[in-house]
Structures are given as structure tokens and as C-alpha cells.
Amino acid sequence: MKKILLSMLFIVTIFAFTSLSHASGVEAVLKMMLKKGMITEADYDEVMDEMKGPDSLEQRVQSVEQKTADLGRKQAVVAKQNESFTEHVDKHIIHEEGAAGGLGNLAIGGGITMVGQGTSGNDGNATGEDVVDGNVSVDLEISAALGEHGEGFIALEAISGDGLPGDELETFWGVNADAGDNGSSLEVIEAWYEHRFGNDAVTVTAGKLDLTNYFDGNKIANDETTQFLADGFINNLSIEFPDNGFGVRLTATPSEIIDITLGFQEGDADWEDIFEDPFLIGEVVVKPQIAGRQGNYRASVWTNRTPHTKILNTGDTNEHNSGVGISVDQQLIDDLSVFGRLGFQNADVSLFDLAWSGGIQVEGSLWGREGDVFAIAYGEARLSDDYEADRRANSLMPADEGHFEFYYSLVVNEHVVISPDIQIITNAMGDDNFETVVVGAVRGQVTF
Question: Where are the alpha helices (DSSP H) in 138-263?
Fold first, then answer.
């Protein structure tokens, strides 16, 4: 009976600790029970001795309370560390469309492009035969946020195969902007640092640049890995962009619909005397909404200060080239957009002084193929008067080169796109005797 009573006392004591959290409260409860005759004096003394001893219930409860408090503090510290880590990750990881993953504050993405091309009708021209060639390119892009307003970027490209451009089929317009020109190669094609000022109103980029990423852009015709293949539909042939080299670009955004961009790049891309004979360009972009449809209208002026040779006076080798360019794309309806380009350059040093192109893009949602794209374009390179005179002097008949291309992008999944492509070239290199050539191709693009 006594054991049962003591057990009840301990239970009451525990509840007393829970509610009062102090030894004096427990003692008061025991005294009340003693006064009511519920326990004897001996029971009272025994319980109090148990509570006050070195292994007393009070000390054990206090130990548990202390451990609980310590655990709470540790959990608070861990929660704070997790919160800080999450904020750090959200602030520094760069989220880019097409980027497949990241490591720390790095964003890593890339793609593989494979092109097979063959000609028909070329065996009657000076190059002498129809051929089937191919090439593959691998692009790897790595970017990282550097501070709150900075970004570092590196792009590597490996190319194997020259494709059709070259001896087999020489044209002004080009037929494969993704192909190389020296067999197999691996190159760092871009490496730069970018900084944004004034709530991103001004952006400055410096390093090894590809200026075509900032000038003469076009939503419909600007990427040889997913859109048109011919060089003349990727960028304006009448803008003499240099190869990638040291450069600086500055973009100011005075309003939501206007960008003003200035660019400098060494003209010969050899990293020697980089400020001598530069390429300079300026562009204004207006981005209006017309009847609720997005449009982009670009106008640029440029000069290339590297030495050029006059066509009709080959002894004059210190001329410069310069010109203007226009690039437009406009959405007409939800699934239909149009584009156009026009450019002029110095007729004294250029084989063609004017190039123009235009086309349309239709999205596959019209026929139940969301993501698919069909596009068609035509362009011409108009010979300069001096080049026409030079060709006639050599008993050749000049004619403007014409170029037609259409492709269909078939989306296999979110990472794979297959694109059959057809091009038709007339009067290649301004030669009226050139037989019309048809170039058929299949391009595969894998992104990761």
C-alpha cells in the first residue's frame, strides 16, 4: 500500500513540476496533502529527501529542462544557418533559359549540333561535283554571379568538320554558319565580365566578346543551331563584324522600350595593338507593342578601321569600311511573325555594297504541334558598281547573288530538335554563269 501511495506522490509531484516548474510549488502540494491526512510525516520526509538528493527528481527535471533549452537554441541556430544558405543560393545562382544545371553559384549549359548537307546541281559549276559533307559542334557555357551586380561568363566551342562552305560551294551568303573552317578545333570563343549600374539602367561588358550577341539581333533569324543555317540569315552580311577578340560594349536603357548600345572591338582579333584599327558600332533598339504584338526595330552605324584595298585601285591598301544596318522582327498574330534586314557598306572596298533579306516564321501550335516551327526566307547580295566593272574587265558576267531557305524544326522532346532544311542559291559570288544549286540538310540539336 505504501508503495502505491508513494507512486501516487511521485505522479503528483511530476504534475506539480510541470505546472509550477519550481521545488517550492511541489513542497506546498506535499504540505497540503500532509495537512489533509493523505500522507504521513514519514512519507513527507521520504519524498522530500528523494527530491533534494544528488539524484533527485528536481535535478533530473532541471537537467531535462536544460537539455531541452539547449536543443531549442541549437535548432534556432541551424534554422538561421539554413535561412542564410537559402538566401545565398537564391541570390547567386544564375537562372538562365536553357541552362540545365549548376554547381554552387555556377550555371552550366550547352548543346551539340550535328549537320549533314548535300548539293544537287553543283556538278556543272567550276567546283565540279555534288558532295555530301557534315560537321558537329559542341558548345559549353559557364556563368556565375560575381557580387550583386556582376557576372562572369565563359563559352567554349569544339568543332569537327568544315561542312559545305569552302571549295565545294563558295557563296557570299554562306550555307552553314555552324561549320568550322580549319578541320577540328577547340576554342574559348567568349570570356568576359559584365557589370550593371543604376538599377540595371547601364550594363558594361568587357573581355573576349562576340559582338553579334549585342548588335544586329533578330528574334526570328539569329541562331544557326535552331533557326536558319545560312550566314546571311543569321547576321547582316553588310556589317563587317570582326572575329571574336577583345572588346567592350555599353548598353543604356533610358526606358522600357529603348536600348542604346555602343561597341568596340579590335579589328583583327589578334590581341596585339588592340586599340589600333578598331571596329566601332552603335545601335538603337526600339521595342514597341503594336496592337498588343511585340516588335523589335534596330538601326546601327559602324566602321571597321582595319586596312582595306580598293577594288579598282589595288595599290590603295589603306582604306576603311563603314556602313549602316537595319534589323526588324514583328509578331503579327499569335503564331505568325515576320523579319527583315537591310544593310549598306562602302562600295569602293566591298564586293557587294547592299544586302537585304526577309521572311516569315509560323509556330506549330496552329496544327497541334506546340514547339515546332516552320520558317522561310529570301535574301540578295547586290554587287557594288566597282566589283561589277572588275568582273566585266575580266570577261565575266556579273549578277546579284540570291539565296532562298526554309526549314522545319521538329521538337522530339525538351532537349532534342530535328530540322530538315532546304536552300537554293543563284549566281553564287556574283557569277551569272553559276548554275542554280539546291542544298539539302538535316540538323540535329541536343541541349543540356
Answer: 231-234
Distance CA 299, CA 285 (A): 7
Domain ranges of the chain: 2-86, 93-447
Phi-psi region of 14 (alpha: psi -120 to 50; beta: other; left: phi over 0): alpha
Could you give the CA distance from residue 273 to residue 14 in angstroms, rounded to a whole number?
87
Query: What secondary structure does DSSP assign to 262-288, as a single string?
Result: EEEEESS-SSSSTTSSEEEEEEEEE--
Rounded-to-integer distance, Cα 206 and Cα 191, Å:
9
Which residue matches cell numbers 566551342?
A: 157
Q: List C-alpha distances in Å: 38 to 2, 9, 373.
A: 12, 10, 91
- The reported pLDDT for the residue numbered 78 is 39
CB 244 within 8 Å of CB 208: yes
CB 163 within 8 A of CB 115: yes
d(CA 320, CA 267): 11
pLDDT band with cut points at 50, 70 and 90 for residue 6: very low
Which helix (H) or strand (E) segment holds residue 70: the answer is helix 57-92
The CATH superfamily of 93-447 is Carbohydrate-selective porin OprB (2.40.160.180)
Whose cell is 560575381? That residue is: 146
Spatial distance between the Cα atoms of 328 and 256, rounded to a whole number of angstroms: 18
The residue-averaged pLDDT of 124-144 equals 87
